[in-house]
Design brief:
Blueprint (H helix, E strand, L loop, with lengths): L1 E6 L6 E6 L10 E9 L8 H4 L15 E9 L11 E5 L11 E4 L4 E3 L6 H5 L2 H14 L7 E5 L6 H10 L3 E6 L4 H7 L3 E4 L12 E6 L3 H7 L3 E9 L10 H6 L7 H13 L6 E6 L3 H5 L11 E5 L3
Parallel strand pairs: 8-9, 8-11, 9-10, 11-12, 13-14
Antiparallel strand pairs: 1-2, 3-4, 3-6, 3-14, 4-5, 5-7
Helix pairs in contact: 3-4
Length: 309
């Protein structure tokens, strides 16, 4: 199969197109013929990309852990799916990803693809929607009528956080660049703050939940806007190495979840959630996509790698 592997020969990690043996579905595994894969550019620097679960150095990883495609083969003891099913989802961060013609996933990693979405749009959903669901619903236990501040509400994760919080009847406030104010309002934000024009802590307070996708100084300044008993949730990568206990408690890493993916698909098909694709690029341009070549392209959502059959 054709795949893109991490190549560290240069100063910065890049990707090279290679021919690899197609993986085979073992017991309890599913082989997915990938049609599209979402891009998370910072993934090339993450620990699971450069290390194995045992802590050994990892080389030649295949990135891209959210995908949409068709089941090509099923291993023993998998009863939930059939060959030919259209599915979407994400697989383990330490596994080879989906920037390839095939990838391996577990039954709990995937759900049936939203029927109303093309593979390109479906591949843009899993990480952002699952992170928002697990942060706001599982961890923060967001309730109707609560006030939630979403940092980076126009980003690939934040746009789902705004939509999910609005759908649960929360009062949604979001920090964005000025050009994105109308966009997050259309997603359901009642208030939008241009972070370049003002300091959000001077504009908002008494917040029940902060959902942070930015980290750094933004996270530090956010503690002061929480009301007593308020909940901080952050997915920003600098939270992973935090030494302070409250940041450790607030930080989490998104995980695959079939039940949540199925509910998200249902909401997408019903029009209660919307997916956004910034642009699509072919497999052989994946290195440029991860390297930021399309960062300033207009639109919202993820860059998606397309892998035609």
């Amino acid at each position: 199969m054709k795949a893109m592997e991490v190549n560290k020969a240069g100063a910065e990690p890049g990707l090279v197109l290679v021919d690899l043996p197609a993986p085979e579905a073992g017991p309890g595994e599913i082989l997915v013929r990938v049609h599209a894969a979402g891009v998370t550019p910072t993934e090339l620097l993450w620990y699971p990309t450069t290390h194995t679960k045992s802590g050994m150095a990892r080389t030649r990883a295949v990135p891209g852990h959210e995908f949409s495609g068709v089941i090509a083969a099923i291993g023993k003891d998998v009863g939930e799916f059939e060959v030919g099913d259209e599915v979407y989802g994400m697989n383990d961060w330490f596994a080879d990803g989906a920037t390839a013609e095939f990838c391996i996933a577990l039954p709990g990693d995937i759900a049936r693809k939203p029927a109303t979405l093309a593979h390109e749009a479906a591949a843009s959903v899993p990480i952002g929607a699952l992170a928002s669901w697990q942060g706001l619903i599982d961890r923060a236990k967001l309730e109707t009528g609560e006030r939630v501040l979403v940092h980076g509400g126009a980003g690939a994760v934040g746009l789902y956080a705004v939509q999910l919080a609005h759908g649960r009847g929360a009062h949604v406030i979001s920090t964005v660049a000025g050009r994105d104010i109308d966009f997050v309002r259309r997603l359901g934000a009642e208030e939008a703050i241009d972070y370049k024009a003002s300091r959000f802590e001077e504009e908002v307070g008494e917040v029940d939940v902060v959902f942070d996708t930015v980290g750094g100084d933004t996270l530090k300044r956010s503690w002061g806007v929480l009301k007593p008993g308020g909940r901080m949730i952050t997915i920003a990568s600098d939270g992973e190495g935090a030494t302070g206990q409250r940041v450790k408690d607030a930080f989490f890493i998104v995980e695959p979840n079939r039940k949540q993916l199925a509910e998200i698909a249902s909401q997408l098909d019903a029009g209660r959630l919307r997916a956004f694709v910034k642009t699509t690029v072919p497999l052989n341009e994946a290195s440029a996509a991860y390297g930021g070549a399309f960062r300033d392209k207009g639109g919202y959502g993820k860059i998606v790698i397309t892998i035609p059959a």
